Amino acid sequence: MSYSNILFEAYSGIATITINRPSKLNALNKDTINELHLALKEADSNKDIKVIILTGSGEKAFVAGADISEFANFNIEEGTKLAAKGQAVLFDFIENLSTPVIAAVNGFALGGGLELAMACHFRLASDNARLGLPEVSLGLIPGYGGTQRLPQLIGKGRAMEMVMTAGMIDANKALDYGLVNHVVAQEDLMPLCKQIATKILSNSSVAISAAITAVNAVFKAGVNGFDVEIEEFGNSFGTADFKEGTTAFLEKRKADFPGE
Fold first, then answer.
1. CATH topology of domain 6-201
2. Catalytically active residues, by annotation
3. What is the pLDDT of residues 67-111, one digit of tens each?
4. What number of other Cβ atoms are within 10 A of residue 28's Cβ?
């Protein structure tokens, strides 16, 4: 599939999706959100792709925010629809994707950019990264899940401070907060992402998908995460990956998971 605002590359079980609007610091507009949805859906439906890495083009920005020019004149109804559609099409879609998505935060991740990174299953950052939710400085609040995912990741107090001040934190503070898992020099960011992705590749993709469902359940209102874990654990016993994994263990060899 051909894209205008993103680059898509797949190699050795890893798909790399790069937001490619460098003149706009990779800001999210409607077309980019739709293209990201299609690219992620394409990667998730490809059985040969086991891990997705999401990053931004250039050395300045992962995603510097949403494209404000698209919604500056919106009314209440239009703004509500903008947030609802964006969450459904991209942000919630990523969070619940069965294929793990790693955010490679290679610069500014502001507003919708930080919300995009937080929707991914975990995050790595380059040492020049700056992260923040500046929406209140525009008379808005985060609308793509920022007020929900940020306190889940770093705690209520820190999230309140970041949202209310509209300020940025650097990569090392993001690491201290638990917002990112690793901080490295920019030239080492993609190699480390691929190193971690390669470790994921060696495991059962079916079990990883089940684990994503179970871990996400703890953050869903009205859902008993322990019950979801029990169900997903039980379902694992009916998979070909379980049979291969346990057989390989008993035979003292490396498992060759069929992904079924």
1. 2-enoyl-CoA Hydratase; Chain A, domain 1 (3.90.226)
2. 115, 135
3. 888 998 999 999 999 999 999 999 999 999 999 999 999 999 999
4. 26
